[in-house]
Every structure is written in C-alpha cells, then in structure tokens.
Design brief:
With 296 residues, the chain is α+β, with helices and mostly antiparallel strands. It has helices at residues 2-27, 32-45, 217-221, and strands spanning 50-52, 57-64, 79-93, 101-112, 121-135, 144-155, 180-192, 195-204, 224-232, 235-244, 249-261, 264-273, 285-293. The two termini are 31 Å apart. Homodimer; dimerization is reversible, and the dimeric form is the active one.
C-alpha cells in the first residue's frame, strides 16, 4: 500500500513539476503587473484548484425503518441528518502523452443524530483517494469516454479499540468500533446521449487477519458497482447498484436533484441494502433522505 501511494506521489509531483516549468516559461514573458492582476482576480473569484468530486450535500432529514442498533449501548433513533463534503485537486496531467489527469481527492461523510437530546455524530467516514483519469474518444457502439484507476482508503477514524487479552482477532471483539478498507479500483465511464454509465470493479488490498476489523466487508457491500446517471431537462437522476456474487448481497441507491437557486439543488436520496456506512456495513438498512446538494 505504501509503495502504491509513493508511486502516485512521485509520478504526480514529477509531472506537476514539468507542467510548472512550462507555465513559468510563459509567465516570464508577461509583465509583472498583468500577472499580479491575474493572481488578484483568482483570489477575489475564489478560483483555486479544489473542485467538487462526489456530490456535496446536506440532508437535514433522513428516516429508516428501524433504530440504528450497531451497538446496543448507543441510544440512537431512526431519524437523523446526513452530510457529505467531497473535493478533488488536479496535481498533474499528460505525463504519458495520453492527456491523462492525476488527482488527489477527499470525501468526508457524517451521520448526525441531530434529533436526539445530545445530538451526537453517530458515524463519520473519511475517504482519501489518489487516481488518474484517462480520456477515451471511443466512437463505437460502447461510447467509452474515460478510464479511472485509483487507490482509495476509507475508515471511520476509531483506531484500534479491541481487547487483545480476550480476542485474538479485531473483528471478534463486539466492542471494537474500528472499520477500514484499502482498495484499488478501475472505473469505466460510457456516454450515450444524456445517459452516463459508470462501471466500477473493486479489489480489496490484503490485511493481516489479526488486525482486520472487517474481513467480510466486500461480501456485504459488493465487488462491483454499476451507476446510471440520467439527465432530463434540469433534472438529474442516478441509480446505483452494488453486488457481491459470492453472497448475493449488495445495495441499491436512487438520487434525484433539481435546481433550487444559484448552484443549490433539491436533493432526494433513497438507499436499501448493505454498506450505507462503515459501522453498519453488515446491517441491512432501508432509508430515505431529503435536503440540498451543492454539486452534482
């Protein structure tokens, strides 16, 4: 895992340095006053490198069929808020003359029991990624538009919390709340008119079985994902399915967004299956949430 991260970092930084050298050669030809104006306008307009990655949203109201009971000691109700912040940063491009782009990304997702007396955050998931997107101009019947190759880490930030004196393996301890997943994935994106289809295949990186908090996680959340993104006028609808062929478990998620004002959208999300959050990856949840999104 460390070697993969180091490879992406080295490759991205080297390509970024090459791009910076090109930009510097052009910048020295411009008057300093012009460069100052460009820098000032970028600062005033907020034109920085961070861009939305996954959907950014705040869902003040989400309800599921039953109470959240991952841990019986927690007095959680079946109504809560949910929010997600996700951004990406392009660090380099065109290293192999394929017009490919290299990114870092971070996604922060929180489940907030805002309607209880103490209003705790029930679960928080942290997901950094490094990935490369290779554009494809496929004019065949398949209409392949891009290939994305990535390394991703997801965890709930709980750290090691099991009792080694009682349990050899982390996952055996019923009080262990730590969950994590390190994986490689490949995603193919196809476009047919206003329908964009994403097909993703996941490979989990091996961990020491004694330290693995959730060895069966992919048997619940699935090894592959199919997502349909359909645009109809101002509406955007998505349907996402995940499946594990070994256990026949997985999930289905539907979202619908419509412009509200400026860059804000009404946002509906319906989920049914496993893996809504890391802490509940092996619990079947059916849930509907409503609120606002700030990107699509």
């Amino acid at each position: 895992m460390k070697l993969i991260i180091a490879f992406f970092l080295t490759l991205s930084l080297y390509a970024a340095e090459m791009q910076n050298d090109k930009n510097l050669d052009l910048d020295v030809l411009k008057p300093k006053h012009d460069r100052a104006k460009v820098a000032m306008n970028n600062w005033l307009d907020g034109n920085f490198g961070l861009k939305p990655y996954k959907t950014n949203y705040i869902l003040p109201y989400g309800i599921q069929e039953n109470k959240y009971d991952s841990f019986t000691s927690d007095d959680y109700i079946n109504v809560e808020a949910e929010l997600q912040v996700s951004f990406k940063l392009q660090v380099a491009k065109d290293f192999f003359n394929l017009d490919e782009r290299y990114f870092f990304s971070y996604t922060h997702r929180a489940f907030w029991q805002i309607y209880t007396e103490s209003s705790p955050f029930r679960e928080t998931n942290y997901s950094p990624e490094v990935f490369v997107v290779i554009p494809i101009n496929d004019e065949s019947i398949f209409k392949l538009r891009s290939v994305q190759l990535a390394y991703a880490h997801t965890s709930n930030g709980q750290g090691e919390s099991h009792d080694k004196t009682l349990y050899t393996y982390h996952y055996q301890d019923p009080l262990n709340q730590s969950r994590s997943l390190n994986m490689l994935y490949a995603k193919l994106t196809f476009q047919h008119d206003t329908l964009v289809t994403d097909l993703e295949v996941i490979h989990r990186m091996k961990e020491n079985i004694e330290n693995d908090d959730n060895p069966s996680i992919l048997y619940y959340i699935g090894f592959a994902e199919l997502k349909l993104n359909y645009f109809l006028g101002d509406h955007m609808m998505t349907l996402k399915g995940r499946l594990s062929p070994y256990s026949e478990k997985g999930s289905v998620e539907y979202t619908h967004s419509y412009p509200a004002i400026n860059d804000t959208y009404f946002y509906l999300k319906v989920f049914s299956g496993y893996g809504e959050s890391l802490i509940d990856y092996d619990k079947h949840i059916s849930k509907a949430s409503f609120g606002f999104s700030f990107s699509r």
